[in-house]
Batch of 2 targets.
Target 1
Amino acid sequence: MAGQDIEKLIKVVAKLPSLGTRSARRIVLQLIKKRETLLLPLIDALSQVAENIKTCEICGNYDTSSPCSICSSALRESHLLCVVQDVADLWAMERVSLFKGKYHVLGGVLSALDGVAPEDLNIDSLVERIHKEGITEVILALPATVDGQITSHYLVSRLKDSGAKITTLAQGIPMGAELDYMDEGTLQLALNSRKLL
Amino acid sequence: MAGQDIEKLIKVVAKLPSLGTRSARRIVLQLIKKRETLLLPLIDALSQVAENIKTCEICGNYDTSSPCSICSSALRESHLLCVVQDVADLWAMERVSLFKGKYHVLGGVLSALDGVAPEDLNIDSLVERIHKEGITEVILALPATVDGQITSHYLVSRLKDSGAKITTLAQGIPMGAELDYMDEGTLQLALNSRKLL
């Protein structure tokens, strides 16, 4: 009998992505065992996030301030806008530290199956930003899935009158990959988009 | 740039068992997205556990009271004691709802490799309980690993003068298992311990 408080915590932890009841139980046990070094610091870190983190009203990023530190930075090139599906993708781009423009988080991609229509995504605010902020290049960094590609096509049609150049991330063989582990679609695409050396 | 508070939370979450930085990031994003339905309930459940959960002074279980609800229950047979490695194993036994005795959590198993000696485990308190509580049967429910078996042997030698009957969980083919997926050790053991029908 694990006690009501513990059972309740296990249920909440099991709702987190990629966790089930079994791993939730292990995590909760570990938390109780390491009260001072794990449980209390976790409560502290969670509370700080709950208290301080806001959604940026301009780009949709999560930060302690809104507009976020990227949107309000004078060091970022404001004519370059990278459109991503989710904040996770924004973080992934930032880890590369190569892109020096600003971002726009769509909040998803169009999907007939999941019933995601253009009005469910932050597309109107994207169109508005391009006009208002004088953006000259929009980089579509959407997933290389069917839904991601459909969304890219839709965005191209919506933005074609904006005057901004619309580009997308290159597709091909990922770094370090063995050819015989690649799917045929990727190989075909890489062959078709081959570059002169 | 994920913000200091978020980075800190990701680091703490990544320390939890079976999680790495990547899954921690996904979890933290999900928590921020579902502030009301996930983040705040999680903080609440964690705080309650941090506030209320104690280690039972008798058996080592975690509960809101010490002695725990099992140790202080009048409905459990107090002459029957099940020795487990960890609170996780106690919970596993309780999920079966078959065992109606009490428990003793060793806090680990003997291990030459990890440097776990008898004095690192709750063995003295076990010996004391058997005498004091008039226990007639000790069920050793330790893992079926080399270290677990060595610990069982050690406990048998320590408890042989206690007057209590010492038993251990049956070993063999687990329920629902296909024979050709079983390791040779288990098959050998199951064959040697075969039962007359």
Target 2
Amino acid sequence: MLQVRWSLHPEVRLHRSAAGVLLLFLLQHSRELLFCHLYFQCSLLLTAPTDLAVSFPKSKRAVFPSTSNPQATTLSWRCWMGLTRMGSCAPLARRTVGHPPPIPDNPSAFPFAFQGNDQVRFELTCYALCPSIKVVAPWRLPEFYQRFPGRRELMDYAQKHGIPVPVTPQTPWSMDENLMHISYEAGILENPKNQAPPGLYTKTCDPATSPDTPDVLEIEFEKGVPVKVTNAGDGAVRRSALELFVYLNDIAGKHGVGRIDIVENRFVGMKSRGIYETPAGTILYHAHLDIEAFTMDREVRKIKQGLSLKFSELVYNGFWHSPECEFLRHCIARSQQAVAGTVRLSVFKGHVSVLGRASPRSLYNEELVSMNVQGDYEPADATGFININALRLKEYHRLQSKVTAKQDE
Amino acid sequence: MLQVRWSLHPEVRLHRSAAGVLLLFLLQHSRELLFCHLYFQCSLLLTAPTDLAVSFPKSKRAVFPSTSNPQATTLSWRCWMGLTRMGSCAPLARRTVGHPPPIPDNPSAFPFAFQGNDQVRFELTCYALCPSIKVVAPWRLPEFYQRFPGRRELMDYAQKHGIPVPVTPQTPWSMDENLMHISYEAGILENPKNQAPPGLYTKTCDPATSPDTPDVLEIEFEKGVPVKVTNAGDGAVRRSALELFVYLNDIAGKHGVGRIDIVENRFVGMKSRGIYETPAGTILYHAHLDIEAFTMDREVRKIKQGLSLKFSELVYNGFWHSPECEFLRHCIARSQQAVAGTVRLSVFKGHVSVLGRASPRSLYNEELVSMNVQGDYEPADATGFININALRLKEYHRLQSKVTAKQDE
Amino acid sequence: MLQVRWSLHPEVRLHRSAAGVLLLFLLQHSRELLFCHLYFQCSLLLTAPTDLAVSFPKSKRAVFPSTSNPQATTLSWRCWMGLTRMGSCAPLARRTVGHPPPIPDNPSAFPFAFQGNDQVRFELTCYALCPSIKVVAPWRLPEFYQRFPGRRELMDYAQKHGIPVPVTPQTPWSMDENLMHISYEAGILENPKNQAPPGLYTKTCDPATSPDTPDVLEIEFEKGVPVKVTNAGDGAVRRSALELFVYLNDIAGKHGVGRIDIVENRFVGMKSRGIYETPAGTILYHAHLDIEAFTMDREVRKIKQGLSLKFSELVYNGFWHSPECEFLRHCIARSQQAVAGTVRLSVFKGHVSVLGRASPRSLYNEELVSMNVQGDYEPADATGFININALRLKEYHRLQSKVTAKQDE
Amino acid sequence: MLQVRWSLHPEVRLHRSAAGVLLLFLLQHSRELLFCHLYFQCSLLLTAPTDLAVSFPKSKRAVFPSTSNPQATTLSWRCWMGLTRMGSCAPLARRTVGHPPPIPDNPSAFPFAFQGNDQVRFELTCYALCPSIKVVAPWRLPEFYQRFPGRRELMDYAQKHGIPVPVTPQTPWSMDENLMHISYEAGILENPKNQAPPGLYTKTCDPATSPDTPDVLEIEFEKGVPVKVTNAGDGAVRRSALELFVYLNDIAGKHGVGRIDIVENRFVGMKSRGIYETPAGTILYHAHLDIEAFTMDREVRKIKQGLSLKFSELVYNGFWHSPECEFLRHCIARSQQAVAGTVRLSVFKGHVSVLGRASPRSLYNEELVSMNVQGDYEPADATGFININALRLKEYHRLQSKVTAKQDE
């Protein structure tokens, strides 16, 4: 079936016959909606979550390559978007290089652009995994973009060659969707002052009309990875990575949780404005942040925060399969060893509120912190602690005074 | 000798009259409600915002020592709490060392504890500003805490000496309040699993019962500092630092914005659980984050993010008046030079949503980012950019393959 | 068409006559392609230090754009090389864009290569200062490098057009020289195992044959910048930036100080091996490091160390004129406010040894540190300091034991 | 034999009988030379390297707890000192808590001081490994230091109780010695301007009189750890951790390598001046730095450099046995996986010079870097790389110009 479709396109055949393969060709031009029946390679990214459920690998790593990790912790919620996006791009590209997945019946368009981040992400991943690969990106080839300068020329070409083209009227913005999020960019959104129209959102309800009763959830973590979600209301339980993620997408969507409007900094050097919805991701972000703070040592966490800033930069820029990102993933995984326990939270009117948490691995010591119990803590020690910490400050003051006095003379 | 003075109770007078003297004495024991009539020094922290309005300095720096700065940007919202707290502690302590403010009529209790952060914050500040000061912290002196092991002994002492003690029944937790936030700790909250009781909150409404219509605000920034708030609904305008802050406290409080339940890491080494309300601070946090991302260069922002992690650590730990914090404030202020413009946002049901932004100083270039306009951007350049970035990854792969191949032999 | 223009410009011929051929010619003139007679701009880089003396700007900033700064402090000595190199490239390129300096009589060749860092450094600088500039780099243009694939073709072309080409036998490596350093790369040095031949070095003596008596110098700093050098032996004094730098080059060269053999990481993604001589720079590096440690607060220095790692990366990669590098320079300059004083050191047999230092701004307090004087320091305070610091460690141990015990059950 | 000596001292008996033991007692007071026969616990640190050879554990970890790690790489050579010192303190303290080692015949004095770092290092280590331990540090106990305010009182006490006290005239500075280094502090060295007297050094020759012929060594590394040293001159080979370290101490000492004079920042808040000799450590520092740069990916190395700054701070401050240091050691060990190969270097007249290196794991690609071979590298790619990198700089310039223009109006 694959071949049949391919045979329609001389160019494609050409590329396939070339040693070294190529797929970015497919990813790149996909923007045009022209060869959309070809770019099966990235179709997984584009179909609905429920469809994804079928083809998505079962292993945790595939769904939470990054959930268990830094962005879920240190990074502000904003970074979560780019991460989840790359989080799914990278494993996908990895798989793509291996064996082409089946073609979905209803692929949507994938708006790769020549100024975009995704071209970089996909290509770096391909090169890192298969250095001998030859990527052909028509939209960056003068011979292509000079021949097809605009949509009209593409349409003409499609018609002439009998290529079916979807004619549904486009929204005045572009969308990218995957299991974790959807982004809206370009078109009327390019003016950063313009508010996103209410009708834009597709994965979350408007908080104004969302239910008046919260859902209260308990999310259990092991080694930083969510392994179980329980709805305290109806007792619903989800355990597998995919199931619980899809479930959280539903709950968050129902309560309008996960919308964000940001200006981000693309790797290729420009600022761009995007609206995102990340329903399940937003809940998991808050839950993981809480359980991590509860179980991780203060100083380990500070170090990990620094690593996370770097990690998110790498992932956003497409360096998932790089020595440094491998290194960071290893370090971060280590930091998550004891991140285990259960977070109780409420999802309501666009907001996630943590209500409490418990863990067998917490460094929290209720006795130690109690104002009523003195315990191991010797009050007088604080005096020495403060005095020694003040020593340096006093010396600095002494010197400053001397210098100032001298200047005043 | 200490006792003698105490029994006079006039010690207070004594202490005040003494040059240089004490104060922490006053701050520390204040916990007991016993000498509450003495600790005027910290009373500013404890009175209601509206009262504060009178005595609070007019300058921006006093209200936004940190608003304009990193935590408002990089740090997750969680850090905001500790910062605002210290943000007001430090200037206060600074002033205290200088000239004692007038005693308020209705000071509340200030629950300094010997395991707490605040003792460190206040004392480090005092030492940094006035190294010759002698801090007396009764609660860390064996002769004091052995004489007054508990509340009962204090009450007895107060009665015997005719010291008026508030008898209002205490909540089963402790509270600290200032212009920017209120914290709830200890008591039943010490079990991190316990949900905060609904009646606990004092500065924000329950989002479940908050208005069904959002307030839409426009907040204007100059050099990272909010200088004007306009309510798009009723046209209300607030300009001065204090006025706009008090106004935002009202708006946020009305919509249930600013609640958080976290486990934090005290400087003295233990984890503790706190519930916070930071109404205005939460709105400003989101607004500043947005305008900063819009106007600040990508790479400057990355560096500043690292500085911010350090800055918040310093402030939380009480090192506001330290050479390193001075240095960081200088650096961060520099980073805010071009952070100017207006953010439009909605406050609704516990959540702040950014709707759009505009700035005369933005690095955002609508033309450059447009998918429809090619502009300055040469598509072919991305090819070289990607290839050069991939070079290192390919080399790494090459080496890994060689090593793996060797191992397989 | 390119050729046509070339023939128009006698200067070009002049410059081309230099051994090693072309390059900046290409980059610089490239601006216009036309004004190749302007590219003497980079000739300053290539002439000997003594010649430089004439044309080099008098201001400190020009000679020590970075001396006063991080690399002189935090970075290992290794980074010094790339920095000094860029340190001079950037101001130069800056000037180039502005007003062309006079043409020196004897420009040497500048071996830019298409895999090199310098092309990036120069071009980024040009673009940053003059975005509308059009850089033409023949060595990256297929039409050029296909026509002149190797040295032979270039020679033929030169002969055919009557362009005089030096026929002195080339060393089997390439060299780049400026006031601060000289680098040796390529050729037989490309094998990282090959020891640099003794005859390679041109700026420093072999320590084996250098004088048997050290030179002892006193170097005075103000705000991190060296302002005076005194030779304790003969009383020689040098004050101006250039004079003292040239003098230190002499002294260091005489004693074989400043040689290094390293493998570095180019911005374009490959590792390369280089031999460097940095005579004056090496002395200043050690002197500045010492005076900084003596005068700068411990915590400020830690922060600055992190900034320095970033700063050196930026400078090495050619981002001197970038918002982030401007920001860092500002921050680092601030950190140098109190870096003042005099360092005494010995230069001998390839090594620089610090002998002592003095400063009016030091945070060093001899009384405080003395083991014989108790001074302000209360011994008992250390107990509390240690205990509070141990609190977290004990909690961690407690938890680990619990977890281990459970696993053992 | 241990008991016999103990019985002489009532205090000692007291402490031993107390539940919870104690050892710091022994370490702390050791300064006094009074109870020197008791402080066997730290004697290992104080005897000569050759004696150490007998009792030192054979495992690599003991000798190179940190050699294989960051300080050997990123940190400037200065940090090496503190690290090696702590590197040996921590394992020692660890062992001490377990079983007391045999008493050496000739223990030297161990100058713990109440302002020092070592008290913190030892005690934190003890607390981290055995939280229930009770440390008694006489020199910080008023009842002790008021009874023995000075040396005279101690001498009197010793005489009265028949405690043998060494009467060798002390040098006018204090010394701490272990396998890795020796430090000289206090006394006449407290004035940071005073040059160390030539007779001070005990482990290295004066470079002025050291041999006129270098030793050329080849040092082989596996996973960042030195595993073999070969002397290219006489073919001598050393393999085991201890043997090669002792051998390098000899070679470096013979050539005057490893001396340094620095001002450092103690954890307890003061600056102090120290002279150090670190013979073998200095050679290994340079060798490891070189092989790491040769084999480690550029971006991994940048991250590791940041971690190293933190690691050295932790080790210097005594947090070897802390969750964060465990975490960092794990991360750094991971970074060393491929750090393997051989470095050739020369040791001569106080200086170590790297001559070349080879590795089966290097990312260095001679073909790629060659100026003569084009290889995989497409020159035209650099154009795109530079252009994309310049995009952000141009935007920044555009904005700056706009702002400046506006200000000029």
